[in-house]
Amino acid sequence: MKNSNMAFREGQYHFLRGEFGKSISGFGKALETGMDADKIHVPLGMAYFKNGNFPEAAAEFSQALNLDPSNDHLLFLRGMASLNQGDTEKAVDDFNASIRLNDRRGAAYIARSLALRAMHWKAEAENDLRAAVTLADVEVELFLREYCIAPPLRQMALSLFDLGNETWGKELWKRHASRLTH
Question: Which residues of 22-40 are buried (b: 16+ CB within 10 A; e: fewer)?
Fold first, then answer.
């Protein structure tokens, strides 16, 4: 078990340094040396995600969801893995489930907005973006950096956030800014 803990810490160390391939190796070594797989699914899924291996990331998040099926954040992460690989329908299913479990997670609304936009459902995408802005818990730059890994998704996300320049978007951003200053 000592070797598995060392390997796990090695995986974490490399993850924090942005060395995701090495992080995957460290977490894999932790599994091989006896660490409980339940403790590795999420960090390994995140390492795969950041390394751009979205099918493996989704598989790890699915394993974690088998253990904790009502975890809205895991549903969101699996949805983001699906969205980054272009599977918008699967992503929407996960985002819908995530929002049903926690309707206060703005990132899930933004993510579903992206998926709906990819499906050419502009009005629905705008509604979700409005909901996210109203919740005021999403930092746009952080969302883009952390979750929009695939270049096509990043480009689409940038165009989606341009919707904030619409009249409704300006009004919502103004209300959000006034809440932060009071």
Answer: bbbbbbebbbeeebeeeeb
